[in-house]
Design brief:
Elements: H1 2-6, H2 11-44, H3 47-74, H4 77-101, H5 106-134, H6 140-168, H7 171-191, H8 207-223, H9 226-247, H10 249-256, H11 261-285, H12 291-311, H13 317-345, H14 351-380, H15 382-400, H16 404-407, H17 409-420
Helix pairs in contact: 2-3, 2-5, 2-6, 2-7, 3-5, 3-8, 3-14, 4-5, 4-7, 5-13, 5-14, 6-11, 6-13, 9-14, 9-15, 11-13, 12-13, 12-15, 14-15
Length: about 425
């Protein structure tokens, strides 16, 4: 991997050309997501329709993740990103034509959301896997921090811009913005050489047999490395515990704080601003030398933020705002170094499979968590859910700090690499 990186000494110019293109694409995607959800809300006023839309966006990650990984590791990742962005643009173009003709139906929106999510299921792990070959290892945490900052910034900027555009443009005009931003992303990837991992050896048998063999190899790679398996299980458990804290915010505002839309916006803004500042902080700081320790400290901080929300009495809404800000700030400190660890320790030719398996398993926790959290919150109170989430996360992190395979994943990888050489 070091040799491949050495072949691209101007890594900042090359990587950030692609990164800026992807920032445009992310902005367009979040803009369209906001616009489509608002259209569904205004058209149907149905919670079931909105829940279905959320499910449609999650299912491709769960179902296609294991399928995408082996293909990404065999295919040219640059082409995968170009095709994925182009498919998003074409899907949005078709949907815009339906809106312009006045024939758009709810199922058209569902289908477009599904295709866009499926394309993202190929694009995102391709970009993550390519990053480890474009960016020096010592800069991966900083780049991951910038990625987290970008996500938070888009979460703050895209909704109000989307609301503004909906007020002055027809739906097809709003969708056209996404077509333009996707074109910028495709152009950026086209003009930049993106290194590829060592080609997997050609395998005997049909394409289907080769695919299943690659998938088994990916699963075996994770199962055979206890530290990597621990990362996957830990991420699944963390997602299961934290998801209700994000999904039950509206109920917290109305049931506990007796607030309205203004209070809900305040909590969401505090979270988003925290993510942006946390991402900038990680981008400048880079984290501790042992990146897994940075990530675990981030989880401790997120837990403290959630706990503050869980103990805030109805008359101290500001304490809940502070808790959301802390949780948002610690989100990049948690996720950024974790992605940097995986980019640094997983073999480049295996990263497509590892990232997609990790994403699909973590995404699977979302519907399972909500199915449990909804009835539980109704019976014990939504604020108690925050308290339980914070305590459980702290206990999990304390246990992880005494689990050597996870804590020493970076050192173990170097030992394995040295033994292989």
């Amino acid at each position: 991997m070091a040799q491949e990186k050495a072949a691209y000494p101007r890594w900042k110019l090359r990587f950030f050309t692609v990164w800026i293109g992807q920032a445009f694409s992310l902005f367009g995607s979040q803009l369209v997501q906001f616009a489509l959800i608002w259209w569904l809300t205004q058209t149907t006023r149905s919670a079931t329709v909105l829940a279905t839309a959320t499910l449609v966006g999650v299912l491709p990650q769960v179902v296609l993740g294991p399928v995408a990984g082996p293909l990404i590791d065999r295919w040219n990742r640059k082409r995968v990103m170009i095709v994925a962005d182009s498919l998003v643009a074409l899907t949005t173009l078709a949907l815009a034509a339906l809106f312009a003709a006045g024939t758009a139906q709810i199922w058209h929106v569902y289908l477009a959301m599904f295709i866009r999510a499926a394309a993202g299921g190929f694009h995102y792990p391709s970009m993550q896997a390519s990053t480890s070959l474009m960016v020096p290892d010592e800069q991966l945490s900083r780049v991951a921090g910038l990625n987290q900052m970008l996500q938070g910034l888009m979460g703050i900027v895209a909704p109000p811009v989307g609301a503004l555009l909906i007020g002055v443009l027809p739906m097809e005009g709003v969708l056209a913005v996404d077509i333009g931003t996707a074109a910028v992303a495709v152009l950026a990837v086209l003009i930049v050489p993106i290194p590829q991992p060592a080609r997997l050896a050609a395998a005997d048998g049909s394409a289907l047999a080769v695919f299943w063999r690659d998938l088994r190899d990916g699963l075996g790679y994770i199962r055979g490395w206890m530290g990597l398996m621990a990362v996957m299980v830990f991420a699944m458990l963390l997602n299961f515990i934290i998801v209700p804290s994000v999904s039950l915010v509206a109920l917290l505002v109305t049931n506990h704080f007796s607030g309205g839309a203004g209070e809900l916006a305040a909590l969401n803004s505090a979270l988003g601003i925290g993510v942006v500042i946390g991402g900038i902080t990680l981008g400048v700081w880079g984290g501790f030398k042992r990146r897994i320790v940075t990530s675990l400290m981030g989880i401790v901080g997120m837990s403290v933020g959630v706990l503050l929300v869980g103990i805030a009495p109805p008359h101290l809404f500001g304490l809940a705002v502070a808790g959301f800000f802390i949780a948002g700030f610690m989100q990049p400190i948690t996720n950024g170094p974790l992605f940097a660890v995986l980019q640094g320790v997983v073999a480049p030719e295996m990263q497509g499979r590892v990232f997609t398996l990790l994403m699909s398993s973590a995404s699977l926790m979302m519907p399972l968590s909500l199915a449990v959290a909804g009835p539980l919150a109704d019976s014990i109170g939504v604020q108690t859910m925050y308290l339980i989430s914070g305590v459980v996360c702290l206990l999990m992190t304390a246990g992880a700090m005494f689990f050597p395979p996870l804590l020493n994943i970076e050192q173990n990888n170097r030992a394995v690499s040295a033994a292989a050489d």
